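EI: anyone free to look at a 444-residue chain?
SC: sure, send it
EI:
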Amino acid sequence: MRMQEHAAPRVAYVMSRFPKITETFILYEILELEQAGLAVEICPLLRERATVVHPEAARMMPRVRFRPFLSGAIVASLWRRLVRSPGRLLSVVAEALWYTRKSRNFFVGAIGILPKTVHMAETLESQGVDHVHAHFASHPALAALIIHRLTGIPFSFTAHGSDIHIDQTMFDRKLAASAFAVTVCAYNVDFLAERFGPWVRDRLTVLHCGTDTEVFSPDATSADAARPEAPFSILCVGALRDVKGHRHLIEACRLLRDEGVPLRCDLVGEGPLKADLERQIAKAGLQGVVRLVGPLPREAVRDAMRAADTVVLPSILARRGDREGIPVCLMEAMACGRPVVSSRQSGIVELVEDGVEGVLCPGGDAPALAAALRRLAADPDLRRRLGQAARDKVIDQFDLRRNALALSERLRAQVMATRATSRPVAPPRVPPLAAGRPVEGANG
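SC: here you go
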């Protein structure tokens, strides 16, 4: 027991997919936690078949525990759990299915992940894992909750953006049962408190994601200078999805082109709207002006940011209710000393103050976006001032190492408290299937 008390905290990280190029914040957070002395098990629910993989993710792949939806080992785990504690297993299954029954996405997902999560619970328990942390309040947090119900291992989760904005199914039960929970912006706390009541504010802490301000840093050779012969260079980094608002940026580029403003715009990323955006670019006659670059590894993204005059993310409130938390790509651009242009919505206003670190426009307003870009194109001194203030803001509030250290300290404190009070940890009683305010779990 004495050796276990002083052993490095063992934390299992659960996420939807790995390695996912648009979720680099999880990858680099894990690396920082390990630098802080935590032992991290990487437990994705699905394997991402990525065309571009960050080198750090590629090096991690041999240790990542991918599990199919069903296998002999998973069936064996289910059988052992059923024989050993049938009431508990059936209660956990009933809880997951009952509380997700009104959401097709969550219900189907619960059915899909239940068998492998039971197997995951058995594996993590046998390995002596102290804590489970999930990224995203959707299926990863459900998996963490299931593991907690079956084994008593405490869990926590980070809530981001679309994982809570579109569908809040079962969020209250996950939050109540968690040892702690964090979210990336104050906007999310207000959003959830409006839906579940003020008790959410006592359970949910704001902890910003961050970026590596040493990797993402200005390049002296790319500092703004008077370049009358060069087109104004615009960069947009983000998945090609509705919420990112690419179509409004393309329209803004058309307006500027028609006014005679020389410009070049590169869109970095991939996604389901690629064909639609290609058609829009062709219809506007913007071939050669607006380019779809595809996904890029981190260093290439950084170099593109350094070379750009401005980085734009024209986010919108999408049809399904998708909206941003605080986009990491904006943090990266600001850390590179680039002025940013984005939308005045959700958590973006916590990162960018209009006229201080960048320019904010109403979401979905292409003429306003064009006006902001026109202003920056005409004023290199303004770009320099905004870019310097942008980097200062990120260093002060959105530095990856500082914020990951805060999370590691929270995880370490939780593990130490659990080890001191739980010899051994007894699996908690599964709350009844009751309506209304969630019943708090053993760690609630």
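EI: The chain is about 50% helix and 15% strand.
SC: 👍
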